[in-house]
Design goal:
CATH superfamily of the largest domain: MFS general substrate transporter like domains
Order of helices and strands: HHHHHHHHHHHHHHHHHH
Helix content: over 70%
Strand content: under 5%
Length: 466
């Protein structure tokens, strides 16, 4: 009974923490036009860094913190991450300029990386493989609950109290999670107490990711192309270093020798690259093209994550019985349909068509996410849960950065670095349609990677009998 109660506490804490990040991301998307007005931002690429700065910081540090958690304790790093999130949310709430807000969001991403790199690892450690899909499905449902309440509550808070109160509320909520974790969870779940931490590998990883994202934001300038080329070189050096290191921050060998792990991560990367920008693009479309208020735009956007939250537990349970490859690939195929419909948006597109497309996206993502996460976590050794959890988050975060990078690149190529104005609405509409078309093509490629991953249940059975 004590073990059962302890596991339930782990599930509650993990789900509470999983709520924060999608809530912050989706609520801020709706608040971007208001932030733009408050700070009189003249460069829309700079406004995008309110979201991108958070994602970039989290992506840089999530894998290193996953490894640190394996060495020093997953609960310890989880709590420290919550404390960083509390402080950074306070800084966001008192920001006096767009630059201070972007910097505070970067610190927020740093703290979130500690949470990303440990929460799924803690949850996977506490529950056996026979019910892992179910609990991961519940966790994913809460992620989507955060995303679904984000647009509505974010729009409501922005309209009636101001966007700063989004961060003030987050600060209090994170404090409650930290207190509950310290009071109720006793285990640390660490397996590699004697290993050294790979500082050089972590630095190379950070340099490569930063160069990649900053380079994307500067395209089509020549400096952007130079940074992208440098990012490729830095990533090659990183992989070579990791292959020679006895205690790598990222076990590159897992990608070479584990097809399920490799292709599941690639499928996740492409899926997030194709889907994360949807809320950003639709927020601009609904408010600038259709003329809706932030609150109304939030209510419309909420339809996708509501569908995700409803169907994710079902998809998680299904992946305990049916091969995750089949469930996840079917889900990504539905995302292709939704993105394809969005690529035909025009100013006169009916609200009903927009909601139907969002429902396709929501159902598709629900069927993809928890089965895919189950496949990744079940394909590695127990002592690698921290790194695997970090990779789940890394693929998500790099995908999200890439999604916003693609949208930002298209906006820059078509609209330049000018502020969105009534005279720019035609160019804005073109940018939105092209972005959705590119996302749809990416998702088709992702279906191929998802199908190529192999049979997880057959491989696990072979490893047990072998």
């Amino acid at each position: 009974m004590d073990t059962l109660n302890s596991n339930r506490t782990v599930l509650v804490v993990s789900c509470m923490a999983s709520f924060i990040t999608p809530f912050l991301a989706s609520s801020v998307n709706v608040a971007l036009p208001t932030i733009n007005s408050d700070f009189a931002v003249t460069d829309q690429a700079l406004l995008g860094w309110v979201v991108t700065g958070f994602l970039l910081s989290a992506a840089i540090f999530v894998v290193p913190f996953g490894r640190i958690a394996d060495v020093f304790g997953r609960k310890r790093i989880f709590v420290i991450g919550l404390l960083v999130l509390i402080v950074s949310s306070f800084l966001c709430s008192i920001s006096g300029s767009i630059y201070m807000l972007i910097a505070s969001r970067a610190v927020e991403g740093f703290g979130s990386a500690m949470i990303f790199g440990t929460s799924i690892a803690i949850l996977t450690s506490a529950y056996p493989s026979s019910v892992r899909g179910r609990v991961l499905g519940i966790n994913v449902a809460v992620v989507y609950l955060g995303a679904s309440t984000g647009p509505f509550l974010g729009g409501l808070i922005t309209q009636y109290a101001g966007w700063r109160f989004i961060y003030a509320g987050t600060m209090v909520y994170a404090l409650l999670i930290a207190l509950l974790t310290l009071a109720k969870i006793k285990d640390e779940w660490r397996c590699a107490e004697t290993e050294k931490f790979d500082i050089v590998g972590s630095a190379l990883y950070a340099i490569a990711l930063f160069s990649l994202m900053y380079g994307l934001s500067l395209i089509p300038d020549l400096t952007g192309a130079h940074l992208l080329a440098f990012a490729v070189i830095a990533m090659i050096v990183f992989f070579r270093w990791e292959l020679r290191n006895k205690n790598p921050v990222l076990k590159v060998s897992a990608f070479r020798n584990n097809a399920v792990f490799t292709f599941s991560n690639l499928a996740a990367l492409i899926n997030y690259s194709a889907t994360f920008g949807v809320a950003f693009l639709l927020s601009l479309y609904l408010q600038f093209i259709k003329g809706y208020s932030p609150q109304t735009a939030g209510l419309i956007l909420v339809s996708q994550p509501i569908v995700q939250a409803v169907f994710s537990p079902f998809a998680g349970r299904l992946s305990d019985r049916v091969e995750p490859r089949i469930v996840a690939s079917a889900g990504m195929s539905l995302c292709v349909i939704g993105l394809g419909l969005f690529s035909f948006l025009v100013p006169s597109t009916s609200l009903g068509q927009i909601i139907i497309s969002l429902i396709f996206m929501g159902l598709g993502f629900a069927l993809f996410s928890s089965p895919n996460t189950n496949a990744i976590m079940s394909s590695v050794d127990r002592c690698d849960y921290g790194v695997a959890s970090g990779m789940v988050s890394t693929m998500r975060l790099i995908g999200q950065m890439t999604s916003l990078g693609i949208a930002t690149l298209i906006f820059t190529l078509i609209m330049g670095h000018s502020e969105i104005s009534p005279g720019q609405l035609g160019s804005l509409m073109t940018s939105i349609r092209i972005s959705f078309a590119i996302f749809a093509v990416l998702c088709v490629i992702g279906v191929g990677f998802s199908l190529a991953r192999g049979n997880l249940k057959r491989d696990l059975e072979a490893s047990r009998t072998g």
